[in-house]
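Moderator note: this is an archived Q&A kept for reference. The question asked for a predicted structure of one protein chain; the sequence and the answer are reproduced below.
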Amino acid sequence: MSVQRSLIAPTAHPRLEDALRQKLQHRAETAGSLGELEPLAVRLGLIQNSLKPRLKSPQLVVFAGDHGLVVDGLSTRGDSTSQQVTHLLAGRLPMAVFSFIQGMGLTVVDAGLAESMSPYPSLLQRKIGFGTRSARSGPAMSIDQAHAAIRAGMEIADSLSGNVLACAGIGVGAHESASLVLSRLADIPLRDLTISGPDMPPDALAQTMVVLQSTQGRHRDVTDPVEVLAAFGGFEVATMVGAMLVAASKRHLIMVDGLPACAALLVAARISAPVTDYVVFCRSHGHRGLDHALNLFRASALLELGMESTDGTGSTLAWPLVHSAAALLTQVAEGEDAGPTLPSTTTLPTLDTPVEADFGSSTRP
C-alpha cells in the first residue's frame, strides 16, 4: 500500500447499528443487561460491518525506539530501551506472560533502537535509524525517514495474521516525544501532557519542561502532521502510524495503549480521520498526561486497574473483555436461528467515495 494514500471507510451504518442493538436487546430479555459490554459489542459489529463480528488471532505489537532528546537533559530512570526490549523478549515482564496466557501473538519491532539487538523469534528488525536526533537542535528525523517508518508500519500490519492489532510504544524519552506531537497537533498545553501525577518531583518536572519548551519553540512553525512527526519523533510512533492506517483500511480492530500510541493515532487521524472509528483504548498506567490524550478522543480506557506497568500490558488484560463483547453477538444463543450476517435490508457500505489518506491533510478527529 502506498505511503501517500490509504482507503479507510467510516464505520457509520445506522441500519446495522439498529439491528445490532435489537439483537442485544432480545438477548437482554433473557439474560439481563450486560452494561458497557453491549455498546462495545455494537462497536465491534460496526467495525466488521456484521451482525456476527468474529475476532481472531489478536496481535500485540510493541514498537521500540530511542530518542535524541534524552541526551539533552531529560531526567531518566530505570532500564535503557534495549534492556526493556530484552526483558520483554525473555518473558520477564508481565505483558509477555499475559499476552501468552490470553492467546495474543507478541511481536517487538525495533523501529529505532540506539543499539543493535541479537536476533530473536519475536523481534522484528525495522530499524530506521539508531535513535532519532535531538529535536531540540533540529528535526528528530527527516521527512524521508518519517515516510520510511510509516511504510514499514504499513508492511508490518499487512503481514500480520488475524484481525485485531494492539499497539504500544516503548523507549526512553518516548512519552516526552509523544507529548510534543500531541501538544502541537491538538493544541494541548505541554505541561498537561508531561506531568505524570501529583507525586512527580517538582525539580524533575521543571527540568523536563525546560527541555521540551525549548524543543517546541525550535519548531514553532511546523503544523503539517507528518512534518510534526518528523520534527519531534519518534521512529516507534511513525511506524505505528502506518500500522494503524493499514489495520483500519482492512476493517481490523485497533487497541491503543499508552501516550506514544495516542500520538500515533492522532497523526494517523490527521491523515485519514475515519481511523479512529476502529479504535478502543487501553491503559497500563496512571500517567496524568494520558488522561488528556484520551479526552482528546472523547474516550476512556476499557479497564482502570491502577497499574503502573509498561505500555501494552493493559491491552493484554482488556483483550478478554473485547473478546467477550464479540461473543455476545456470535456465540450466546437465545433460541434464534443462525441468521444472516447482515440484516436483510442492509447492504455493505461501498468504497465508491473512499476516504483518502493524504499526508498533507489536516482533518481533525
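Archived answer notes: Confidence is low (pLDDT under 50) at residues 1-5, 345-365.
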